[in-house]
Amino acid sequence: ILAQTGFHEKVSRLISKQNRKPVLKPNRPLTLRDAVANRKLKKGEATCVTEMSVLMACWKLNNFVDGLCSQEMESFYTCVDKAQSSMKNKSDQNILQGGRLPPKHATSLLKRYPNQTCEI
Question: Which of 32, 54, 45 lies closest to 114, judged by CA?
């Protein structure tokens, strides 16, 4: 009985005394939107850090002449290419495996199947 009276007190505080309508009014309509905020997913750990540091050390030793550090540049660029291809494959697998959808894919699906605004 005490729990019910506490509940009724809370409800009576939310209802205005004059009109018996709820005091709290939503500032937006209470429907789902047809788009998702375009937030970037978290980045993973940094890749190719050792190759980049070797390249920068070579540049510093050779007064930033690219021709003298061609081997280090080549190893850095191959590492970057491998990392980008692995990230692309990983993102494709996440979409197919049913993990979290990227915001672009979620928005495209929501636009394809929009929210009904009228009642049936």
Answer: 32
